[in-house]
Amino acid sequence: MxxxxxxxxxxxxxxxxxxxxxxxxxxxxxxxxxEGFRVGLNLELYNAPSNEYQTKLVLKPxxxxxxxxxxxxxxxxxxxxxxxxxxxxxxLNLQVGIGxxxxxxxxxxxxxxxxxLGGDGVSRIRNKTSLGLCPGVDFRFGWRADYVLxxxxxxxxxxxPLFNMNSGRLEASLDRIEAILTHTx
Length: 185
Prior knowledge:
- The chain has one domain.
- It is elongated, with a radius of gyration of 22 Å.
- Strands 1, 2, 3, 4, 5, 6, 7, 8, 9, 10, 11, 12 and 15 form a 13-stranded mixed beta sheet that branches. The chain has a two-stranded antiparallel ribbon with strand order 13-14.
- The protein is mainly β.
- This is DUF7781 domain-containing protein.
- It holds the Pfam family DUF7781.
- It comes from Camellia sinensis (Tea plant).
- InterPro entries: DUF7781.
């Protein structure tokens, strides 16, 4: 999101605003609710930067205060136990997990701080939007917006223009589409 060549303002709307609606991740999730637990099969397709796919089996409690989820990746022979995202502040979450790789014969733990505000914390928004089509069929869209807000400046008696406007920039993309099929007993 840089300005045009030589620090000049871009001259067309196409250079100021770019929206990409081709997702780089496609997920198909099958879920079955059984006696207080949700068992899921996730088929995950990634088309950028390289074409690859993953399958995951997921087990997690259905209760509102669930604290964990168990994930098994049969193609990589990995198992993980992840905590729920723990809110630290309004926009900051912590998640911890322990896992084992049967291929590498290694056990380790990870932690991750996440936020819906990415980048420098001001110029990027990342979010997920859910759409319930009918009972048991949901779509979730992961999207991102990088932006620079318009800026208005001016001066009197300094040799600078009385009024100056930087029109700002927006780059938005639809990064992920998830189709979630849930069967309840």
